[in-house]
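Technical annex, item 7. During the second reporting period the consortium partners agreed on a shared format for inverse folding records so that results from different sites could be compared directly. Each record opens with the tokenized structure and is followed by the designed sequence. A conforming record, contributed by the partner at site C, is shown below for reference.
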């Protein structure tokens, strides 16, 4: 013998409807939040990763060129220095008394 209780059937149907509605509300809220976050982050002045990598490579190349030029300048400065004059020894001074 199976008794049918319409109150429980109606309650179960109502709860299934509420669960479906809440799931839909959750998906909609998540979608809305994602869109708001995209707008917020998009409005900031963030740089893309590929742009960052390109500028980083340019900085490394400039640093290497700077180091090479520094070494070249140092070599040119060393080559341009006059040789130091020899100091006369004390014994070889003219007019010195023995």
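Designed sequence (site C submission):
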């Amino acid at each position: 013998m199976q008794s049918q209780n319409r109150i429980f059937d109606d309650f179960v149907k109502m709860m299934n409807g509420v669960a479906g509605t809440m799931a839909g509300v959750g998906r909609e809220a998540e979608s809305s939040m994602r869109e708001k976050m995209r707008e917020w982050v998009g409005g900031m002045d963030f740089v893309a990763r590929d742009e960052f990598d390109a500028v980083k490579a340019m900085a490394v190349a400039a640093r290497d060129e700077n180091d090479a030029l520094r070494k070249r300048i140092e070599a040119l400065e060393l080559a341009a220095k006059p040789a130091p004059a020899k100091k006369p020894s004390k014994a070889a001074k003219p007019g010195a008394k023995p």
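The CA atoms of residues 1 and 94 lie 142 Å apart. Residues 47-80 form one domain. All partners now use this format for quarterly exchanges.
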